[in-house]
């Protein structure tokens, strides 16, 4: 076991855990946008910065990536941390000036309006955190989308910006997106994911008649798990 302190509280942690994991287990709130416990940490949004103190020196690190160490002292809301977090939110707000999630996070830090000139503001919902890409790759195992280009032209897209032919319509990318940047809707017997330019026929339950999941997603699961053909004829509610 490792002993460290977070915000003055002495805590025990397992070797290999990150500061964010230990803080979260102990009810200490650190804001994040790009972190999801089911996925590898990525350190993209930097909102989870904390200040660490060791050997008489201090520095600011991303808590989702930094592993705990014996005797480490961590502060989650020191003046230095708050300055960093405020600047990160200023930048996110400049990119996503109309996004409600970002506006609310910024307001919590006392930022009501972006401090950048109007010509530098963008009406984007995507913060390029890569959660959707990682979910598709690491959880679904499909890799239908990826982060493409660099610098100011970086974005999430299917290969060659065409329809995401590998997509199975599972919606994992939509569910993990922290800012609502992915637009998905189920209309009658069809699921549409606008960002990836794809549509899927939904499977109808033989018992209740509800359309409940994309046929392509069910085929994918059935093939992977070698399930019988009729396995998904009935929805989970009616099973
Ligand atoms: S809906 Fe498509 S792009 Fe999104 S996670 Fe599922 S397979 Fe990947």
Which key features would you list for this structure?
globular, binds iron/sulfur cluster, 25% helix, 5-stranded mixed beta sheet, 4-stranded antiparallel beta sheet, 6 helices, 2 domains, Ubiquitin-like (UB roll), 239 residues, alpha+beta
Care to describe what's here?
With 239 residues, the chain is of the alpha+beta class. The chain folds into 2 domains: 1-128, Ubiquitin-like (UB roll) (Roll), CATH 3.10.20.740; 131-225, no CATH class. Helix content is 25%, strand content 21%. The chain contains 6 helices and 11 strands. The strands form 3 sheets. The protein has a 5-stranded mixed β-sheet with strand order 2-1-5-3-4, sandwiched between helices. A 4-stranded antiparallel β-sheet has the order 8-9-10-11. Helix 2 packs antiparallel against helix 3 (100-108). The longest helix has 17 residues, at 79-95. It is globular. The mean pLDDT is 96. Iron/sulfur cluster (SF4) is lined by residues 135-136, 140, 142, 144-145, 164, 167-173, 193, 196.
Spatial order of the strands forming the largest sheet:
2-1-5-3-4
Proportion of beta-strand residues: 15-25%
Between the first and last Cα atoms, what is the distance in angstroms?
44 Å
Which overall shape is indicated by the principal axes computed on the Cα atoms? globular
Mean pLDDT: 96
Main sheet overview: 5 strands, mixed
Structural class: alpha+beta
Give the number of DSSP strands. Answer: 11
Determine Rg (CA atoms, Å): 21 Å
């Amino acid at each position: 076991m490792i002993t460290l302190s977070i915000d003055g509280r002495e805590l025990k942690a397992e070797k290999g855990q990150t500061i964010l994991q230990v803080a979260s287990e102990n009810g200490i709130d650190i804001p994040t946008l790009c972190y999801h416990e089911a996925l590898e940490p990525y350190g993209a949004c930097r909102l989870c910065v904390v200040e660490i103190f060791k050997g008489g020196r201090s520095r600011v690190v991303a808590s989702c990536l930094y592993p705990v160490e014996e005797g480490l002292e961590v502060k989650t809301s020191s003046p230095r941390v708050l300055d960093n977090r405020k600047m990160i939110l200023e930048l996110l707000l400049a990119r996503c000036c109309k996004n409600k999630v970002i506006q609310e996070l910024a307001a919590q830090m006392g930022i009501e309006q972006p401090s950048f000139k109007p010509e530098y503001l963008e009406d984007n919902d995507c913060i390029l955190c890569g959660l959707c890409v990682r979910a598709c790759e690491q959880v679904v195992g499909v890799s239908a989308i990826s982060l493409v280009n660099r610098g100011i032209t970086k974005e999430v897209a299917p290969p060659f910006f065409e329809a995401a032919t590998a997509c199975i319509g599972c919606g994992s990318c939509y569910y993990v997106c922290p800012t609502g940047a992915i637009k998905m809707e189920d209309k009658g017997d069809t699921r549409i994911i606008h960002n990836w330019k794809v549509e899927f026929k939904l499977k109808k339950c033989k018992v209740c008649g509800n359309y409940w999941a994309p046929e392509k997603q069910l085929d994918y699961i059935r093939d992977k798990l070698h399930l019988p053909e009729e396995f998904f004829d009935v929805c989970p509610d009616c099973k």
